[in-house]
Amino acid sequence: MGDTASEQPRRVVFDYGEVISRPTRALPRITTALGVDGAALDRVSTAYFAERDAYDRGLGDHEYWSAVGKRLGADVDAALARELTRLDVAG
């Protein structure tokens, strides 16, 4: 058996339930960007996670953030959706 890259085992790691990764720390910044009262962080968290499954399955950025915004009474245009995505990815 040689020592080539094609013989090396390949692995894919999925992190369900934040076993490996930390929970997002972006929610306070997302709350501010949405223009929602900072005291409403729990409401933002609920909206964020309520729509997350569809987003993780391929729902577009703008559609996801619009759905989150709708739950909070906030309008999300394309520019705000891009900013929210940036904040979310930055964690």
UniProtKB/TrEMBL annotation:
Listed A to Z, the keywords are: Hydrolase
What GO MF annotations does this protein's record show?
hydrolase activity
Please indicate which superkingdom the organism of origin belongs to.
Bacteria
> What name is this protein filed under?
Putative hydrolase of the HAD superfamily
Entry annotated with the keyword Hydrolase? yes
Query: What's the source species for this entry?
Result: Actinopolyspora xinjiangensis
